[in-house]
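R.M. (postdoc): so does anyone remember the format we settled on? I'll just put the structure tokens first.
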């Protein structure tokens, strides 16, 4: 088996294990497609650097953290852009504070 096939097979196995567990319940904002792509990229880097495709625990968690943060940022950005969230104020540290748009009925969101 060539290295690319081994990377694909390993990524398939990893994704199957994650789907069979409660992983996506714990990491709601972690996009499976992006996660798989990042796993494959890191496995390729590992092969090029140490001739071993397997991820360390730290590499796995770093990838999960990165993909999850991207998912959270995208979701938050989408909610700001579509008007679900609106800027409320600026706190003492200069951070923007957002709130649910008062024109949106929360009961309508929950029924969708």
């Amino acid at each position: 088996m060539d290295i690319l096939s081994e990377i694909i097979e390993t990524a398939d196995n990893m994704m199957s294990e994650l789907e069979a567990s409660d992983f996506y319940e714990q990491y709601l904002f972690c996009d499976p497609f992006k996660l798989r792509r990042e796993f494959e990229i890191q496995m390729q880097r590992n092969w090029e650097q140490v001739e071993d495709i397997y991820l360390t625990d730290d590499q796995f968690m770093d990838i999960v953290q990165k993909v999850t943060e991207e998912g959270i940022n995208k979701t938050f950005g989408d909610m700001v852009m579509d008007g679900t969230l609106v800027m409320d104020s600026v706190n003492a540290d200069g951070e923007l504070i957002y709130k649910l748009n008062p024109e949106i009925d929360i009961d309508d969101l929950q029924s969708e």
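R.M.: ...and that's the designed sequence above, right after the tokens. Also worth knowing: The chain has a mean pLDDT of 92. The beta strands are 85-90, 96-100.
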